[in-house]
C-alpha cells in the first residue's frame, strides 16, 4: 500500500497504516490556517425531474466511512500532521424548502460558502435541494482542498457508489511521531540544500513574458470572491473546433483561457503566458489527499491562434516533457514549508502569488461520478472557490483565472473562475468574457443552471 511520496511509510502493522499529510496537503493547510484563504472544491449535479434522494443519502453515509471520513490530526512538537479518521468528518443535508425556478446557480454559490473545518469538521458537505416546479434536483458536494483534490474526491464518490470498503488509517504512537519528526527535518534539510546548490548554478530564464498592465483603480465593493461561469458545449462542436485548427481538446482549452485573459486586459498581444496544467500523479490504491503535479505551458498571445493551434499544442506537449525533468520550485517549497511553524510560514508566504492561468483538464467523467448512484446522468459543474470576505487578499496575490474542462457524455463542461477581483469582479463579467471568447472560436455553450 503506497503512502505519501515524501518521508517514510510508517505503519503500526502490516494492515493498518498511519496516513500522514504530504507537503501538498500541508500547503493547503497553510492556505487555510496561516493565510486565511481556504480553498474549497465544489461539484454540482443537476438531475432532470425527480430522482431517488435515498440513493444519494446512502452514498453520503458511505462517504463518511471512506477516504473522505478524515480530519487533520496533530501532535505536540515537530513532525507531519496525520489523518484522523472519523464518521463526523462530513455533513449531509436535504433542504426542506424548494428552490425557485432558475435558482440552481444561486443555491450552488451559497453552498460553496458554507463553512468547513479541517480540524473539527465538517470538512465536507453534501447538500440536496429540488426546484419548486420539480423540474430538477440539484446536489452540491463541497470539500476542503486539504482533505481531497479533484482526483481524490472523484475516487471517493466512485468508491461510495460501488460500496468499495476503505481501510481507515490508525493514530500514530509516540515512537512513530519521533521517528517521523526526524525524517521530516532530514527531508526538508536535504531539499533546502539542493535548492541552494541549484540556485548557485543560476536558474534558466523562464520563457514567460507578460506585460505589466497596470490594474485599473477600481472600487472592490461588491466584488465576489472567485466568481464562476460554467457552460456546457456539444462535444462534437468542441472537438471539431480543435481538430480543424490542428489542435486537441487540451490545447483549445489553454487557448481559450489565454483569450479570456486578453479580453479582460490582463495580458496583451505578444505576451507569453505561463499556463499551469495540473497533472494527476495518483495511482491505484493511492491514499494521498492531494496527488497533483504541475506542468507549465508557455503560450503566446498571438492573434493567429484562432486559425492555427499548432503552437499552443506544441507548447503543451513541451510542458509535459519538462514535468519529468526535476521537481518544481513550488514542490520544493512545499517540502520545506512543512517543516516550519506557522509564524515562519507566514513570513515566507508574504509575497507569494497565485497562478495567472490554471487549466485543469479532468478528461472523461466516470459514470458513477456523473450519476451519483441514482442511475440518472446529471449535468455537472466543477470549480474551486477561495473562500474569503476580503477580496483585497485575492487582488494582492495577483491571481488571474482558473478553469476546469471535463467530458460528460456528449457534451463538454467548461468552468472558469476569476481570481482577479479588479478585472473580473463578478459572475456576470466572467460569463460575458467566456461567451465572447467561445464565439471567437465559433462555439456556444448553455449555462449549467439554465
How would you explain this protein's 3D organization?
The chain has 450 residues and is α+β, with helices and mostly antiparallel strands. It folds into two domains: 23-189, Chloramphenicol Acetyltransferase, CATH 3.30.559.10; 204-365 and 388-447, 2-Layer Sandwich (Chloramphenicol Acetyltransferase). It has 13 helices and 14 strands. It has helices spanning 23-33, 53-64, 104-112, 150-161, 174-200, 235-243, 249-263, 310-323, 329-337, 342-348, 367-371, 392-396, 427-440; strands at 39-48, 70-73, 82-85, 90-94, 124-130, 136-144, 228-234, 272-280, 292-300, 357-364, 379-386, 401-408, 411-418, 446-447. The strands form four sheets. It has a five-stranded mixed beta sheet with strand order 4-5-6-1-11, sandwiched between helices. Helix 1 crosses helix 9. Residues 197-223 are annotated as: Disordered. This is Diacylglycerol O-acyltransferase.
Quick check: average pLDDT? 88
Instruction: Assign the CATH topology of the largest domain.
Output: Chloramphenicol Acetyltransferase
- Number of domain units: 2
Total beta strands: 14
Region (Disordered): 197-223
Protein name: Diacylglycerol O-acyltransferase
How do the helices and strands line up, and which of them pair or pack?
Blueprint: H1 23-33, E1 39-48, H2 53-64, E2 70-73, E3 82-85, E4 90-94, H3 104-112, E5 124-130, E6 136-144, H4 150-161, H5 174-200, E7 228-234, H6 235-243, H7 249-263, E8 272-280, E9 292-300, H8 310-323, H9 329-337, H10 342-348, E10 357-364, H11 367-371, E11 379-386, H12 392-396, E12 401-408, E13 411-418, H13 427-440, E14 446-447
Parallel strand pairs: 4-5, 10-12
Antiparallel strand pairs: 1-6, 1-11, 2-3, 5-6, 7-13, 7-14, 8-9, 12-13
Amino acid at each position: 500500500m503506497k503512502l505519501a511520496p515524501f518521508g517514510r511509510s510508517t505503519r503500526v502493522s502490516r494492515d493498518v497504516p498511519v496516513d500522514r499529510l504530504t507537503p501538498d496537503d500541508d500547503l493547503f493547510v497553510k492556505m487555510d490556517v496561516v493565510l486565511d484563504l481556504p480553498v474549497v472544491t465544489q461539484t454540482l449535479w443537476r438531475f432532470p425531474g425527480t430522482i431517488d434522494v435515498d440513493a444519494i443519502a446512502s452514498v453520503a453515509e458511505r462517504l463518511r466511512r471512506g477516504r473522505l471520513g478524515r480530519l487533520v490530526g496533530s501532535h505536540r512538537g515537530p513532525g507531519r500532521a496525520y489523518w484522523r479518521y472519523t464518521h463526523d468528518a462530513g455533513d449531509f443535508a436535504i433542504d426542506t424548502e424548494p428552490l425557485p425556478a432558475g435558482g440552481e446557480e444561486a443555491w450552488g454559490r451559497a453552498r460553496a460558502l458554507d463553512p468547513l473545518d479541517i480540524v473539527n469538521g465538517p470538512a465536507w458537505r453534501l447538500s440536496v435541494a429540488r426546484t419548486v416546479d420539480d423540474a430538477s434536483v440539484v446536489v452540491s458536494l463541497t470539500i476542503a482542498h486539504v482533505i481531497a483534490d479533484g482526483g481524490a474526491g472523484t475516487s471517493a464518490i466512485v468508491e461510495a457508489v460501488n460500496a468499495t470498503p476503505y481501510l481507515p488509517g490508525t493514530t500514530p504512537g509516540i515512537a512513530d511521531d519521533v521517528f517521523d519528526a526526524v525524517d521530516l527535518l532530514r527531508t526538508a534539510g536535504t531539499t533546502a540544500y539542493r535548492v541552494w546548490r541549484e540556485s548557485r548554478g543560476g536558474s534558466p530564464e523562464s520563457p514567460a513574458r507578460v506585460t505589466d498592465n497596470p490594474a485599473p483603480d477600481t472600487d472592490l465593493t461588491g466584488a465576489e470572491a472567485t466568481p464562476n461561469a460554467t457552460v456546457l458545449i456539444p462535444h462534437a462542436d468542441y472537438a471539431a473546433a480543435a481538430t480543424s485548427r490542428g489542435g486537441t481538446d487540451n490545447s483549445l482549452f489553454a487557448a481559450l483561457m489565454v483569450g479570456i485573459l486578453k479580453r479582460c486586459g490582463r495580458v496583451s498581444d505578444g505576451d507569453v503566458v505561463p499556463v499551469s496544467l495540473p497533472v494527476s500523479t495518483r495511482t491505484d490504491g493511492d491514499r494521498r489527499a492531494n496527488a497533483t503535479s504541475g506542468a507549465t505551458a508557455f503560450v503566446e498571445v498571438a492573434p493567429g491562434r484562432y486559425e492555427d493551434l499548432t503552437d499552443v499544442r506544441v507548447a503543451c506537449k513541451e510542458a509535459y516533457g519538462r514535468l519529468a525533468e526535476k521537481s518544481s520550485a513550488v514542490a520544493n517549497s512545499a517540502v520545506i514549508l512543512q517543516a516550519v511553524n506557522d509564524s515562519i510560514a507566514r513570513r515566507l508566504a508574504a509575497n507569494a502569488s497565485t497562478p495567472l492561468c490554471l487549466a485543469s483538464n479532468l478528461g472523461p467523467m466516470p459514470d458513477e461520478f456523473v450519476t451519483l448512484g441514482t442511475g440518472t446522468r446529471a449535468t455537472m459543474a466543477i470549480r474551486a472557490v477561495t473562500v474569503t470576505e476580503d477580496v483585497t487578499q485575492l487582488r494582492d496575490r495577483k491571481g488571474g483565472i482558473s478553469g476546469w474542462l471535463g467530458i460528460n457524455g456528449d457534451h463538454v463542461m467548461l468552468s472558469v473562475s476569476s481570481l482577479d477581483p479588479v478585472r473580473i469582479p463578478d459572475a456576470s463579467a466572467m460569463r460575458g468574457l467566456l461567451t465572447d471568447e467561445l464565439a471567437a472560436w465559433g462555439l456556444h455553450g448553455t449555462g449549467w443552471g439554465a
